[in-house]
Amino acid sequence: QVQLVESGGGSVQSGGSLRLSCSAFGYTYSVYCMGWFRQVPGKEREVVARVYSINGRIYYANFAKGRFTISQDNAKNTLYLQMNSLKLEDTATYYCAAGRDCSREQGIIFWGQGTHVTVSS
Fold first, then answer.
1. Residue 106 — left, alpha, or beta (φ > 0 → left; ψ -120 to 50 → alpha)?
2. Cys bridge to 4: 18, 39, 77, 112, which one at CB 3.0-4.6 A?
């Protein structure tokens, strides 16, 4: 079992930055990847970025490329998402996730509780 606890959400003005953190507790060796998803009410949850522990590869959604950076501190079992140049459309609830295939919801085994990000003009 893996427990994921996010922090770092909040309100920021357009163009600003936020860093999300996700602390993982439990037997993390059961998952192959960790990532961040986001969801806006009324829309499907979408992947933001993901990293695979098996080979270290990192993937970003097109909207995140050049603005967001995913990283992890293995010693602290913590995943981060640095978000820069935030836009109004980045407003969403962001979820930390861990599983076997972090490119889609169906591949996720464990979810965090979510942390909300609001970007205002």
1. alpha
2. 112
